[in-house]
Amino acid sequence: MSTAVTGSRDDGDRAGAAVPPDPVEALAARWADAVAGTSYVPLQPDELEELLRGLLHRLHAALDEPPVRQGPAGRQVGAALVDAHFTNPQSLSQTLCVLLDGGPGGAAPSREGAPPDHRWHALVAAVAEGFSAALQDRALREEEAILGAAAAAREQAREALHVSQERFRAVFEGATIGIGIGDLEGRILDVNPALVRLLGHPVEDFRRRSVQEFMHPADVEHVWRLYGELIRGERDHFRLEKQFLKSDGESVWTDLTVSLLRDGDGRPRYQLALIHDVTALRHLRRRLEFEAQHDALTGLPNRRTFLAHLDAVFDQASPGARAGLCYLDLDGFKAVNDTLGHEVGDQLLVAVAQRLVSVVRDRGLSVARLGGDEFVVLVPGTSGSAQLVALAEEVLAAVAQPVQLGGRRVEITASVGVVERSIADIDPAELLRAADMTLYWAKADGRSQWALFEPERDAREITRYRLSSALPAALAGEHLLVHYQPLRRLADGRLHGVEALVRWEHPRMGLLGPESFVGLAEESGMIVPLGRHVLRAACRQAFSWFGAEASGPFVSVNLASRQLRDEHLVDDVRAALADSGLHPQQLQLEITESAVLGTDPLTGHTLDALAGMGVRLAIDDFGTGYSNLAHLRRLPLDELKLDGSFLRGLRSDDAVDPVDVQLVGSIVSLAHLLGLTVTAEGVETPAQVAILRELDCDAGQGTHLGRPADPADLGRLLDPV
Predict the structure, then answer these.
(1) Among residues 30, 117, 186, 549, which is most buried (max CB within 10 A)?
(2) CATH superfamily of the domain spanning 470-706
(3) What are the backbone dihedrals phi and psi of residue 407, each rounded to the nearest 5 degrees, phi first?
(4) What CATH class does 175-283 carry?
(5) pLDDT digit string, tens, across residues 179-230
(6) For residues 490 and 645, what is the distance between their CA atoms, to the nearest angstrom?
(7) What stretch of H or E contains 242?
(8) Sign of CA dihedral 549, 552, 558, 564
């Protein structure tokens, strides 16, 4: 390659000779083009050309040296090529072609016929010699490195194998779990000390025996199937809990893992067994399972186990099958705990449990403790309720026997709820609920007895429960209404007052009277807000009818015993009067005899405070309680309401009971003597009105004088009869 820059010879201003190219630069460029790609050299083209340019300068400089120094210089250039990673013979071939063809001038090939430059040729030959020698040295060094690495690798492998063997032996000998190695025929090749200690056989004994000889008689077919699959190479391992027999014949439970060991080609060669003693763990697990399924105090099955058994009876029942429960609860058990202590109470529960077991064991039944002092006996496959009743009577008799506890004679009774039903007609939860409900009946009916489940009574109880649950929402949603029944003066038929009677407009059951839910309100504590609601509504309605006149008709509102004991009652009454504008003497509060019998200080203070406000107070249903007029004399009362039962003998002119006439007359006279007005309840006939008028009874209330009605329909009833 050569370049020239020339100008026009005819242009005198720019005429001149071209600058000749550097022969070393040209030869270096040709050399770089020739060797490019012949070897892998990590140099860019300009870096490669610079390297070769330097080597050419060294060769040209050697031409001026004595012949003895020219050879080493050429060999150094050849070695430099190898050091630069020109290691392919083609690189040498191309180098020789370029150097021999370029000549010592390097600009162009030697002219034809020109004498060869023997010094240059000798120098190029030295380059080839140096290249070959360096390439051979490099190959030898690489071979030595490879051989050294191979030797080091072999030594490392031997060392690693030795370390691995030592490590395995340390693990094998020092492991706390048993390890055994066997061949595929089942011959035991080696065992570690832990396995010797576990099973009690010496190492030599193991090596004389096969794996099959250590199988336990209780091993199921499943164990043998897994072992066979492992030996045939169909699985690589299996794990299970298995028994082994020790040298002394004792059985030991183990956690066994057996693995298949293969050679480098994947062929099965050995079996490795890891055996861990889990006897204590298994016993602990069994104990925990027992404790989870049984009552800790009595050892009887607990509620969880009983429910599982009950579910199983239903799941496995044949068509037409029946089942029953005897649900038992001790009577007065809390008193035993409170008076004799919980330790004696626990001893009593244990004694009762043992007696129940003695009763049911011969029948093939089981008894469970559901908690506290409640026990239950499940009777599957029953033939009728008589079978359950007989069992309940035997249970009651067994429990009632006195028991000696810590030197004390303790007597206890029980109540039993009995239910027996077709399995097709009920589910387990409903059967248990029915038994629980029936036990409640037995308790409510007097204790120390059994009660048999009655579907009709159960339906009533369910209705009561649903009403009790829905009562708060009914009160909040204004579904509780107030109707009114007139009280009339018997002398002239004019209005004496009205009684407020609460009603429940139930969305499904229609209009319900107070007998359906007031008792539930008293039990649940809802009676106080319910009474407050009725009081406020009644006062507002009375004011809209009668205005605020002290001598006008009044509205009478019933108070439950719990309301009378409420410390906020006086404030509630005062607020109802103030909000409505009604005069206090136009409000009458009705209370029962039992509510004021043996009046406590709070109740007495409440009655005095109400009377001091001017509110009328009346005794409701007089004659159904203790009928103690002497006690009533000490109370700030205004009126006595005679219970309607006294008027039953006065219904007809033809069949008047003179005793009843005298009795009613005496009560009226005594009440008047105490300064009380008398209103007779349950007036249903004109004959009763006539007799009561003759006896100077002040007022009457009943269907003959006016039925309870909605405020909107009561207008005509407020007129005289």
Answers:
(1) 30
(2) EAL domain (3.20.20.450)
(3) 80, 5
(4) alpha beta
(5) 989 898 888 999 999 899 999 999 898 988 888 887 777 776 778 788 888 8
(6) 19
(7) strand 237-245
(8) positive
